[in-house]
Specification:
heterotrimer; A alpha+beta (135); B mainly alpha (361); C mainly alpha (426); B: 361 residues; mainly alpha; two-stranded antiparallel sheet; 70% helix; C: 426 residues; flat
Amino acid sequence: MNLLLGSGVAASIISFIYPALRYIIPPPVAESASNFVAAAKVGELKNNNGKIFRFGSEPALLVRLADGSYRAFSAVCTHLSCTVQYRSDLREIWCACHNGLYNLEGRNVSGPPPRPLARYEVHIQGDDVVVTRAA
Amino acid sequence: MATLYRKTLNWMDERFGAGSVEEFLRHKTVPVTRHILWYYLGGMTLFLFIIQVLTGILLLLYYRPTPNDAFESVQFVMTQVRFGWLIRSVHSWSANLMIFTAFLHMFSVYFLKAYRKPRELTWISGMLLFFIVLGFGFSGYLLPWNTLAFFATKVGTEMAGSVPGIGKWLLVFLRGGQEVTGATLTRFFGFHIAVLPGLATLLLAIHLFLVQKLGMSVPPSVERAVAEGRTSLRNMPFFPNFLLRDMIGWYAALGVLGGLAAIFPWELGTKADAFAAAPAGIRPEWYFLFTFQTLKYLPARILFLEGEFAGILGFSVGAVVWVMVPFLDRRIGFGRLTRVFTGLGVFVIGYIIVLSALALR
Amino acid sequence: MKKSIIFVALLFLSLRAAVAAPPKDTCIACHAALGGDLAKPASQFEVDVHHQAGLRCADCHGGDPSDDSMNAMSHAKGFRGAPKKNQIPEFCARCHADATYMHRFNPQMRVDQLSEYLTSVHGKRLKQGDTRVAACVDCHGVHNILAVSDTRAPVYPTNVASTCARCHADAAHMKGFNIPTDQFALYEKSVHAQTLAGGDTSAPTCSTCHGNHGATPPGVGSVANVCGTCHVMNEQLFDKSPHQAAFAKMGLPGCVQCHSNHEIVRPTDAWVGTGPQSACTTCHTPGDKGYGAAQAMLADLTHLDSSLTRAAEVLNVAERAGMEVSGPKVELAGAQEDLVKARVDVHTFDAAAVRKLTDSGVEIAAKSYQAGVAALRERDYRRKGLGLALIAIVLAISGLYLKIRQMESGDSIGHRGDVERKAREV
């Protein structure tokens, strides 16, 4: 009788404590990648080049300008949500779907896009080019 | 096992008189009547509250209370943290279950008239606890910062603005500004993990102390029958008999919570966007539905009062009457007045059920 | 003395103020009083953009607005009257082609409308004496002209098609011109019309492809250029493809050959390949290279499409079961993009190019599908775990129940049995 009670209680307690203990140990990726992403390594991107990376649930664009500085924008075109790309020949951001163009401030300068691209902040942290959402 | 218990108790007794407390508690009994099932509800509510505290503390290890991070941190818990899905779903389900058992506990105490002398303060401390529990529900609901929560909070705090007199100040106080923003989230987080737990602990201590001191109430009908010699009162010792039965209930509750978490996990929703239009059919959580629906039905003007104002006023007056019931229901258990209050209780339950059902249509 | 000087001065100033009322405009005054059709210009002119700019009847029609008599409309007073149909373009161009004059009102305003108009079919026919064609006032209105940016204007983007249709959809009016009158009806069915109606003013309407003042349908050789102003990739790929030269040789109108000119609807994958809705089989026959390429392209597109659907379905099942799959769903969006790009690459008419994109997409879709399957596995693991925990709980509950029974064996609860014995022990 007592054995049944004891084992039942013990088993149930283990089935509660076990998950709680595993929960407390932090998972391998300690941060959610939606506000803070290492978009590239320093030196990976040449001047006057761009790179698409994932930021949260959407694509984003890291641009290295001709002078070596970095800019980061949302890569979701404000017209019909196609993914934009950096055009080294035009030195502007272009959307292949309907020929929309954005300048290096993210402002929509030509074609159908009605609004500028959202702008993100870029910092160099050690070896990484880190992109975060604007404060 | 028993000697270890004895030895520990003696050790504590020699230092701060624990023995007399234990002696007192050992004599705690529960009356055995056909109403005994209702007596489990208080302990069940307390148990679920403890579940909330434990899962809440675990969630606190990963939650971030800012608009940028809140939704993502909950998503993180649900997807990346091991058993995070379990802790979070248990916390959300247990919150609703606790509010439900709190309602049942309150109404069972009301109908069994356990609030009569000498237990008036137990009733009042219990009612304050009830309001605090509703506050927990309201503040906690916003914390995942999803669309439903954002707009439900908007609507709810808007209603607070209609409270007579202090309405405008109350709205700004709750929201941390004129609109629901990150400031609201910070504030609600502070209420949820610090202010309300502090108040709840204090009131719970008072409530539990009074319950132990005054013993378990016997239903008036049974009391009358015993007085008239028609029956004898049977009592069950709390330790261990009632407690073991309590534990069966608590284990069953744990099973239900686990099942709900695994089979009906609590939704994440979509991240709140303050500038998006409110989705159609926004409504508060089920425990506020009846007030929400009532305000929807009220006309723009009632006599000389603005409709919403009159509604809030009505509910406020109703709440005050409900809290003061121990002092209003004279000659409890006898005569017509007491039947009026029983009828009032039935009306309130019916009102809540009917209006909540209408809100869900 | 001083007081009276001040008084007179004040009187003089107030009289001056009274006199500085708007100058007399007898045109409006008389025409309004005439009623009927003659009064229309007077009442309409209130909203006219020229009126807002400070112009009056006389600025266009000449004459003397301060003169009460019929003399106001005399040749001597410079009265030009209402222009005949074939005089209208030059009438408006008196100001609108004068750069110096126009730039007083809007420095950015174009002044080439007349020169453009004279190159258009409308302009050429008007010069030949055909008064059925459109001149300035047919599209812009005459006395209630609104700015192009005004949503009520007949030339505001969402209104352009119905303005053109006033003539071009009227079979009786268009008799003898030998051009179709179904363009408006066809255009209304197009994806461009629906996008425009949905509020996207960047979507093309009649004037976008045909020009507004120099309205001319694009020549067969320049259709691709026109479409290519927005659909850049499609045009570039088409130009490099074998179809460009072939179509030019056969005199086929580029994009229009498969996509139509006015009834441009959303294409489906079935337009590629060799099925009943295929555009390829118009020219290609079984055995030729194009036929084979069409079959290969359709097969690849369909393969990617079905992979996407399969992955999306499993992810949806997982999501409905409560699993968090927003990550794999985002990855799947990448495969969706590959499908879009593959459909654009159809315009290379090169099966290998399409294959490259569909392969990439299929790979991503397969990964997402695996993620969905893993999520379902996790769901099953959770349910198994729940089962185990429930067994433990049931054990504990039965243990408790039996313990209670054992403790209370005997008679009424609590008065005898274990508890009393324990109390005595202690």
